[in-house]
């Protein structure tokens, strides 16, 4: 994992000093609300309904145990003793005091963390696949490139006041896309061209929110050394020509649509032709240096435990289910990837207490080389667990409630904070998630209906990514009453698609029953082994409509 | 006489005034003193100003600096207007003037110029700044230098951190 050198440390310290100065000037009335706004947003501080919220960056989801412990301490000392994992691999505190934020940032800087550019109209935290570096089907480890992008985008002098926020995601797996790159402002798919050279396919203009869009490809192959100059060209075109007159039309997707993907690509190529060979062009040496931070841990020779595991699974049904759902194949045959689920029914998805953060830190130290990854499904991954320790780990995490074996199933809900916490909400979202989790609490039934992405947002800002859920739920306001609109058929993976609206919205108390009807239609129509999304694609939305509105 | 901040944080006074764009049908009123006029008007009537060495231009945030290609260095001063500090187009304009059009003379930030943006402006090639009148000019030197280095190459340096680290 990346480790700061003296340059990073110096800039981090200077940033904290700068924000302390800015906060003092704001509190002394030297900066108006309006002037302080972008400064605090770019330091993660967002003021909303009940209290300020501080969004802390977790670059591409990686955390060390010492950082988890520091986060735990911060939630205790400055907040109410819990934090929230977000759908962009970040961590949020919901109740900090504004005056304390510079101190919190200083505490974070001590463990090489920050809240830079986690809000505001700037380049945000770059996200990637939580299985980077440990999965078998990867073109190459994307994290060095994410770190390269992080450094390039941090305090970029030209792009601190873009028309709107800007998010980049990188994916390197050939067969899956856990980073949802096609719904980002820039989505980079790592690939090799026919000469075997490493590079990226570049998607631009994807996004959710009010105008959901799947990002078109604007360059089929970008050589790796050209990564930063090309990003700079895209950002410059956007900075100059993106709309600034209407906040709802300011995202790059609107510009790409207005110019057409071809027209936009041509403008980028023109700009790029001037800066391709500028000093911003990466060098092989620099890339190697970044790669040096993401080398493999010291894997040990793990004895073959196939038989032992088989016996343990046979004798213990819950362990068997957990292995089947929450454990993934590692590229090293002696190891496994374990996802700790933060989705116990009754707690808001993604919420963790200070104690749990420390438990996760201990687990990381004991079982996974002291590191974890935060996923955009709001779970936590131990990426390097010895197979001969799986049973012991499972026993350890079961009482901690991290072993709910529902990963990727209907009850592994992605859900925004909604009306319980968020000023912009039309409706609450957490109680809907909970009522659906209760409706589908029978594990055998849950496994039988298979992998289904359920995403819930409390308003069209789409923090819960409802458009790309196989089943999406959106909170809407009908004459002051909270209602929920359902869409079907979305996907955030390689086959990315925006879901289609089923029809008129429902009251909250009807949601479990409506969800049950949708699942029933699927079960009645599926062919053997056919997942929900495929059945939906085959039979279309009509049968669902007929049943639900009958 | 406006107070002008320079990139090293010192303060000086000079006489350059920004001449606003005349309303439709009105003609441009050129003062005696050094004047910055809308760039397109200068381009349209460049020959009228040949006897004066104290005429510069200003670009608004939606203007295209490329229109000045080839003639930038005839100008002693180019100003870029920030209509609102949150309008970031001026940063790209500055870099294009410096890095694409090879502009060598004074580049001035005018308009809604506040303290916390000064260092970004400096990195993009500005060398003088007219701070909004209600801001404390004595804090400018500090705000120009919050950071001792940056990650990227920009107008101020050809050495992004990844190149400095490698050497
Ligand atoms: C609690 C207070 C929160 C507020 C007030 C809030 C507000 C917003 C707003 C205004 C947007 C704007 C969308 C746009 O630019 O069109 C947004 C987007 C987003 N938020 Fe939140 N949010 C909150 C919490 C969260 C949380 C907890 C998560 C993670 C679970 C989250 C994840 C996101 C994501 C991923 C987007 C981007 C969706 C897109 O791609 O356009 N937000 N949020
Ligand atoms: S989707 Fe809406 S309700 Fe939910 S967190 Fe985002 S802004 Fe708030």
Order of helices and strands of chain B: EEEEHEEHEHEHH
Mean pLDDT, all residues of chain B: 95
Indicate the overall shape of chain B. Answer: globular
CATH class of the largest domain in chain A: Alpha Beta
Shape of chain A: globular
The number of helices of chain B is 5
Superfamily (CATH H level) name of the largest domain in chain A: Sulfite Reductase Hemoprotein, domain 1
CATH fold-type name of chain B: Rossmann fold
Question: Helix amount of chain A, in percent?
Answer: 25-40%
User: Which two chains touch over the largest interface?
Assistant: A-B, 44 and 39 residues
Under CATH, the topology of the largest domain in chain A can be stated as Sulfite Reductase Hemoprotein, domain 1
Q: What is the straight-line distance between the termini of chain B?
A: 46 Å
Instruction: Please summarize the sheet with the most strands of chain A.
Output: 6 strands, mixed
* Number of H/I helices of chain A: 18
The secondary-structure class of chain A comes to: alpha+beta
Give the N-to-C terminal Cα separation of chain A.
Answer: 54 Å
């Amino acid at each position: 994992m990346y480790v700061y050198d003296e340059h990073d440390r110096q800039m981090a310290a200077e940033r904290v000093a700068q924000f302390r100065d800015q906060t003092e000037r704001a509190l002394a009335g030297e900066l108006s609300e309006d002037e302080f706004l972008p400064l605090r947003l770019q330091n993660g501080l967002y003021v909303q309904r009940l209290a300020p919220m501080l969004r802390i960056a977790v670059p591409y989801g990686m955390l060390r145990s010492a950082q988890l412990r520091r986060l735990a301490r911060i939630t205790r000392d400055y907040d109410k003793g819990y934090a929230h994992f977000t759908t962009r691999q970040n961590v949020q505190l919901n109740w900090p005091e504004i005056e304390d934020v510079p101190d919190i940032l200083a505490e974070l800087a001590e463990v090489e963390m920050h809240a830079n550019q986690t809000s505001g109209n700037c380049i945000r935290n770059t996200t990637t696949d939580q299985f980077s570096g440990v999965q078998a089907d990867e073109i190459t480890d994307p994290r060095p490139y994410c770190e390269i992008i992080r450094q390039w985008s941090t305090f970029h002098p030209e792009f601190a006041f873009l028309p709107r926020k800007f998010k980049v995601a990188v994916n390197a797996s050939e067969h899956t896309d856990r980073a949802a790159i096609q719904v980002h402002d820039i989505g980079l798919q790592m690939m090799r061209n026919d000469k075997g050279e490493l590079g990226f396919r570049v998607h631009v203009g994807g996004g959710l929110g009010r105008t959901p869009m799947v990002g078109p490809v604007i360059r089929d192959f970008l050589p790796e050394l050209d990564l930063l100059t090309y990003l700079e060209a895209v950002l410059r075109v956007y900075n100059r020509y993106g709309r600034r007159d209407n906040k709802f039309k300011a995202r790059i997707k609107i510009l790409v649509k207005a110019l057409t993907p071809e027209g936009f690509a041509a403008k980028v190529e023109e700009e790029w032709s001037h800066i391709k060979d500028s000093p911003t062009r990466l060098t092989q040496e620099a890339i190697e240096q970044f790669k040096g931070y993401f080398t493999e841990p010291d894997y040990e020779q793990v004895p073959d435990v196939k038989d032992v595991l088989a016996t343990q699974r046979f004798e213990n049904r819950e362990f068997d289910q957990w292995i089947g759902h929450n454990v993934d194949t590692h590229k090293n045959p002696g190891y496994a990837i374990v996802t700790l689920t933060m989705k116990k029914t009754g707690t808001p998805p993604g919420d963790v207490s200070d104690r749990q953060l420390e438990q996760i830190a201990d687990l990381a130290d004991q079982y996974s080389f002291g590191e974890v990854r935060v996923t955009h499904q709001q779970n936590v991954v131990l990426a390097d667990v010895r197979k001969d320790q799986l049973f012991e780990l499972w026993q350890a995490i079961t009482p901690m409630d991290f072993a709910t074996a529902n990963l990727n199933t209907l009850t592994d809900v992605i859900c925004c904070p909604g009306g319980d916490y968020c000023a912009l909400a039309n409706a609450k979202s957490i109680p809907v998630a909970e009522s659906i989790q209760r409706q589908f609490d029978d594990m055998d039934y849950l496994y039988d209906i298979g992998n289904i992405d359920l995403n819930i947002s409390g308003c069209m800002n789409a923090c819960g990514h409802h458009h790309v859920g196989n089943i999406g739920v959106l909170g809407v306001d009908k004459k002051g009453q909270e209602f929920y609109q359902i869409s079907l058929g979305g996907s955030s993976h390689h086959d990315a698609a925006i879901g289609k609206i089923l029809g008129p919205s429902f009251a909250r108390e009807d949601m479990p029953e409506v969800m049950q009807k949708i699942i029933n239609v699927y079960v009645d129509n599926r062919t053997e082994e056919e997942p929900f999304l495929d059945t939906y694609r085959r039979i279309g939305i009509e049968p669902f409509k007929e049943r639900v509105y009958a | 006489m406006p107070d002008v901040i320079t990139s090293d944080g010192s303060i000086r006074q000079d006489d350059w005034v920004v001449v606003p764009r005349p309303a439709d049908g009105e003609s441009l009123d050129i003062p005696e003193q050094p004047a910055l006029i809308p760039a397109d008007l200068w381009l349209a009537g460049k020959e009228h100003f040949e006897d004066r060495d104290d005429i510069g231009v200003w670009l608004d945030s939606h203007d295209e600096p490329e229109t000045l290609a080839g003639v930038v260095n005839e100008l002693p001063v180019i100003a870029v207007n920030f209509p609102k500090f949150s309008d970031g187009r001026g940063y790209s304009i500055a870099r294009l003037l410096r890095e694409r059009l090879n502009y060598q003379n004074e580049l001035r930030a005018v308009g809604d110029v506040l303290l916390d943006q000064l260092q970004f402006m400096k990195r993009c090639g500005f060398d003088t700044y007219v701070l909004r009148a209600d801001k404390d000019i004595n804090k400018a030197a500090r705000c120009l230098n919050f950071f001792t280095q940056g990650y990227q190459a920009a107008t101020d340096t050809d050495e992004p951190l990844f190149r400095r680290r490698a050497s």
